[in-house]
Amino acid sequence: MKNKRANEEQSMKDLVEMFKNKHRLNPGLDKVDVENAWMTQLGPAIKNYTDQIKFRNTVLTVHLSSSTLREELSYGKERIIKTLNESLGKELISKLILR
């Protein structure tokens, strides 16, 4: 009787993906990735006015302390969503709500 595990080779990436799926970690990790993408892609000026970021069910809700900035960003929502999804490497965000 051969040891089945000794004959199977898997990459570390595949093993991590299996672990994340088995323990249902993807939603939490996606949330962290989206928050990090917001902070890095939009820069330090917008980061300073960002009070709260929530990501749930493909909807990103961002609370901003500046109404002027909120209005300016609302004109480019589609571009922001596209930029964030490109930096994440997958289509996670389908809607952006600015408050």
Automatic annotation (TrEMBL):
InterPro entries: DciA-like (IPR007922). This is DUF721 domain-containing protein. The lineage of its organism: Bacteria, Pseudomonadati, Bacteroidota, Flavobacteriia, Flavobacteriales.
